């Protein structure tokens, strides 16, 4: 599923390069609401950039080319 990444998505993906994270940690670290992070994570899972490991944990599957080039 194609997904156009916004600034928040790019920040989330970059943060996930550091390892497995949960929405609460990402929200605090990136200064977004937990609900917004959760929404963006669902889109990133659907786009197959992120995996939901269960128990509220997410990990990076694939870093999009547009972020690798930055």
From TrEMBL:
Gene3D superfamilies: Winged helix-like DNA-binding domain superfamily/Winged helix DNA-binding domain. Coiled coil: none annotated. Residues 5-50 form the HTH marR-type domain. GO terms for molecular function: DNA-binding transcription factor activity. This is HTH marR-type domain-containing protein. It comes from the Archaea. InterPro entries: HTH_MarR-typ (IPR000835), WH-like_DNA-bd_sf (IPR036388), WH_DNA-bd_sf (IPR036390).
């Amino acid at each position: 599923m194609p997904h156009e990444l916004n600034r928040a998505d790019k920040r989330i993906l970059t943060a996930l390069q550091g390892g497995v994270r949960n929405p609460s940690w990402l929200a605090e670290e990136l200064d977004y609401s937990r609900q917004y992070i959760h929404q963006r994570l669902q889109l990133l899972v659907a786009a197959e950039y992120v995996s939901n490991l269960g128990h509220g944990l997410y990990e990076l599957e694939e870093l999009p080319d547009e972020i690798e080039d930055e």
